[in-house]
Amino acid sequence: MATPADWLAGARPRTLPAAVSPVVAGTGVAAYVDGSVWWKALLALVVSLALQVAVNYANDYSDGVRGTDADRVGPMRLVGSGTASPSAVKRAAFLAFGVAGVAGLVLAATTAWWLVAVGVVCVLAAWFYTGGSKPYGYLGLGEVMVFVFFGLVAVIGTTYVQTETWEWAALYAAVGVGALACAILVANNLRDIPTDTIAGKRTLAVVLGDRRTRLLYAALVVLAAAAVGALAVVTSWWVLVGLGFLVLGVPAMRTVLGGATGPGLIPVLQRTGLAELLWAVLVAAALVACG
Which terminus of the chain is less hemmed in, N or C, by CB atoms within 10 Å? Predict the structure, then answer.
């Protein structure tokens, strides 16, 4: 039987900055525009974290039953390693989806009921990333969906539930956060090109190949920096403090462009996740201070 430590590892805590960052950035924009509604920000955080954990367990389950994780280089997977049964991991994923759903319903009831439809789409996107008969994660669309849901939807949605207005600042913040969330997945898929190719998993990295995938990672880091500049134009120049994320982003980019492979790319995942969180914290701090 899987131990609590195994279940924690299966939830992939190193990916959680990708769930926290959009809520932090979106709340920063809300604070700048019209003042934050902190209890809604906390509920948005619950939704984001629960969805991240759910998609991690769902991927563990779906990749495990397909045999994609049989020869993984990265962290342990519950199903692929035989540590937990597929049915148990599937139940864990549904439980996390349920937590996200309850918190999301409260936000919809206190903001706008059409948000329920957005939540349903988010859950379906999380499940069918590697689930179903034709998972889009196997068709090179994973990065696109990460940008949309953990960038655009998460940041703009967090701002909207607190202000109930459309804000250009939220869009620029979403681009920055989404770019780094994509970079995490790009680094992960770059590491897994050999095993994914054998398993028939056509990620974007498999389609692009090694060299172009490394260039894509670098482009996403640059895009995140450009988003800081765009956000500063529509809010305050103090937001440029957000460029401090490059302290982590540049070394990670050097590792990727330097040709690291396999286990050598694992630290890049952690640095990129922390770079995304630092981007969001620095930008949000500047927006709160200037709001």
Answer: N
Q: What is the DSSP string of 94-111?
A: HHHHHHHHHHHHHHHHHS
Residue type present at position 191 = R
Q: pLDDT (tens digit, 9 = 90+) per residue, 168-203? A: 999 999 999 999 999 999 999 999 999 888 878 889
pLDDT for 76-103, tens place per residue?
788 888 888 999 999 999 999 999 999 9
Q: Is residue 134 part of a domain?
A: yes
State pTM to two decimals: 0.91
Q: How far apart are CA 17 and CA 250, in angstroms?
A: 18
d(C-alpha 275, C-alpha 18), whole Å: 10
The helix/strand/coil state of 144 is helix
| Residue with token string 């286990």 | 263
- The answer to whether 8 and 265 have CB atoms below 8 angstroms apart is no
Tokens 């990749």 belong to residue: 63
Report d(CA 285, CA 283) in Å as an integer. Answer: 5
Q: Is residue 2 part of a domain?
A: no
> Which alpha helices (DSSP H) does the chain contain, by range?
4-10, 17-33, 38-66, 86-110, 115-127, 142-147, 154-163, 168-191, 193-199, 204-208, 210-234, 246-257, 266-290
Query: What is the CATH number for 172?
Result: 1.10.600
Residue 59 included in any domain: yes
How many domains, in total, are found in the chain? 1
**Residue ranges in the chain modelled with pLDDT below 70:** 68-75
| CA pair distance 31, 133, nearest whole angstrom | 43
Assigned domain for 9 exists: no
